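Work Package 3 (structural annotation) set out to generate three-dimensional models for the target panel prioritized at the project kickoff. During this period the team completed the workflow that converts sequence records into discrete structure tokens, so that structures can be stored uniformly alongside our sequence database. As a representative example, we reproduce one entry of 379 residues exactly as it appears in the project archive.
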Amino acid sequence: MTPATMLSTILRAAGSTRPYADSLPLSLEQIPVPTPRAGEVLVRIERASLCHSDLSVIDGSRVRPLPMALGHEAAGTVGAVGDGVNDVAVGDRVVLVFVPSCGDCRACRAGRPALCHRGAEANGAGDLLHGPAVLTTESGERINHHLGVSAFSQYAVVARESVVVVDQDVPFDIAAMFGCAALTGIGAVLNTGALAPGQSVIVFGLGAVGLMAVMAAAQVAGTTVIAIDPLPEKRALALRCGADQVGSPDQAAQLVLEHAGDGVDLAVEAVGSARVMEAGLALLTRGGALVSVGLPHPEQTITTQALQFAGLGRRLLGSYMGDSVPSRDIPVYLQLWRDGRLPVELLHTDTRPLADLNESLDALVAGDVVRRLFVMHAE
């Protein structure tokens, strides 16, 4: 039975100073459990992951309406459905997706639901796809939704379009990482970058998204996969994820020269840095592509030689949520995991209670965790 109230993690002001374990930007609050409206579902959150996209709201580099209940990468169990929801049932195990696609806007009609116009508008406003925010404090103060999910809570009401049903035997620890990291990292390589057999790829930034990109590249026959990160432990993890060569940022150019000749066919920038984007463009072969999946601060700009695009046929491609179609891609990626070809469990650093979120932000900034998962309920 669903309780009347739940614990939810609320951000009330952006730009807190580090260490976050001292400034405590996130507060755990008891708020009412909302009821799903038409087209919506209530999900009991079982696992949620901490991601740099959460951090970007906390540090102010991604401006969002506050107060906001954070969290966008999660898995859970359907607890109730609203009117008109006939293809999801109570008890279904679901992965939550941070872009709800309306199915009828320009992007959706073009087969690019990750860029849904209505979904982006709702996410930017802190609303849900089918109506305004349903989260409030017990006194009635509006609480905004984070990317249509707000997963750092014991329950979440989301649009039907924000969930993908998965098999009951998929562990929540695994399922939770497929809603953001897998869609973004794997999609950047297979969808946006369209890596072909025998090509070469370099991945900058070996957090969860970058490591998912490494795993995806390793699935393509005959590829050469180079992985770059300043932290030795992340480079070691990249080798376990399928990288052929690893190195620090200072070693990137030499590794490309030795293992990809005059440049790589595909570079994936998963750092969120304009400087890294510039470096990646410079390492492309003729006709190569740089796929940008990181989230640089809005004030960052890139400076690069304009002639390289027409003169060398190079491409700079933005990739939001890996240009994924979640209902199509998540089952495919889960099958790769079942087949032992996508070892996403390597990215699971540890599991903590929701109360450890503030100090976990510091661990994420320091690179001490790849994917820290949180439990919402006593087990």
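The CA atoms of residues 227 and 246 lie 5 Å apart.
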